[in-house]
């Protein structure tokens, strides 16, 4: 892999704060880098821009493939920028890990939005995670905030770990569904429903309209059975058509109303404070592993350990403990 | 939380090797425990039983909720035990994290299998992960092998991180799908298709039969477009009816054929060797974080750090680095 030239931290900081999109993109690439030198630089940039973050509303958007996320984001995003707001979308790159495109062929996604100067779309690296949330999505979000974006969409696909990760970094979590497809088949598990702040029945257009209305009633009834959330917000169920644009304004109004209520009752900031703490824990784990694998003695021993484990002569967990002990013994107080 | 009484390591080891199911269940509970003392005991047990593991075929079974996993496992499992084999199923507990049951009500799952003495069903703890794969599923699998089970099913739900985790511990990975539901809607992404060794169109019964056959052809054609795998296995597409039992024997034969071919070309053991190495890496991460959070000085400092981060006065990543540095300085060579 080619080592990229890097700017000084100040170039990234100034560029991001000046809303220079080229630098913003390069700064996101920097924080996504696994190189130790890049990581130190990234931390310096992040710490410097942090006081300029926090002034956006962070919205997570999830739903299984086929539910119409791209079309929804395309139209909903246009509504947001028509309100005079700057929008950043941390989107999923639909190409798979090996980069040969989806089994159904690549989709043209967010065509209008991607041409609009008021919007910034950053596809997440297709690499390490399937759900589209990378380990550095949080940092990318904060960089966008520092660059002055008022609204951040974080798109995620599928149902599972990536939603838990996104829930841990957004203010509002929106689940797109389809009427009539059956909630089981859409991977709607109670855990996900409990996480979301709004459940949107998409594709409520044409012949689907009545089914969408029925689904809305059913879900609204079902949601009443759930214990109320600590922030006393009852998740809303709404219908919309990402294709025709119906219902999008109501969704935007609901998000505004949520934000105002949560700021008033203190939950908005309390939730963000908890999210920052979780960020610290995530980063601790990351730093511990980095230090371990970059340790010279570990580096010298790990290949032998792997060979022994491959041969089946030694237990993987026993070897892990031995290596961690070697690492601990290596560290000298500085 | 009540602290449980523990046996000595030898009691667990002898009990598991003697196929005592009560002890086996308790040993799995032991490895799932987060208590440091339990973890030391668990490692001792795992290292002792490890030479007695490896003699099973490990089969991952995935598919979105509603695809019929429980029914499939119920019937496929019966076929396996009718072959004279002992079957362990590491299953998903359908109740959600907060333990109030699914939105559609709890299902009665694997009724026949759970009554059969030749099968052992262990629901995964509903706690920490949504996909049903816990951090200790691998250990549970090995304990079952040491207890003499010939076939292990690892059930997982949804599409994402949990499948990657399961792929990392099984020999054969089987994806259940439905005909006509649209592959997009079922969360079938190229990444998952690339992972699976067989794609099974379930519910190929009654009026669905023709659609299932068509879907089989389509997927088989699509799979030909994928680059061939390093083990030179072309993922098979088959239809079956978990409800009526049709097609299950062919699936079992295919898995046998896979196993024989992979043993012959060396992939079977090479894959398991790689999986053991990944296990070591996972455990290293776990041990590093455990050591960190159990460190006395960290324990004393972490609350202040969390308070500072909550107040927003300090960057989470900066504080993480500081704490990791404090930890490093604490460690004395022993």
From TrEMBL, chains A, B:
Per the record, the domain of life is: Bacteria
GO MF annotation terms: kinase activity
Q: Which UniProt keywords apply?
A: Kinase, Transferase
Q: Does the keyword Cell wall biogenesis/degradation apply?
A: no
Q: Name one Pfam family in it.
A: MeaB
PANTHER family this protein is in?
A: METHYLMALONIC ACIDURIA TYPE A PROTEIN, MITOCHONDRIAL, METHYLMALONYL-COA MUTASE
- Which family does the record assign? Belongs to the SIMIBI class G3E GTPase family. ArgK/MeaB subfamily.
* Protein name according to UniProt: ATPase/protein kinase
Source lineage? Bacteria, Pseudomonadati, Bacteroidota, Cytophagia, Cytophagales
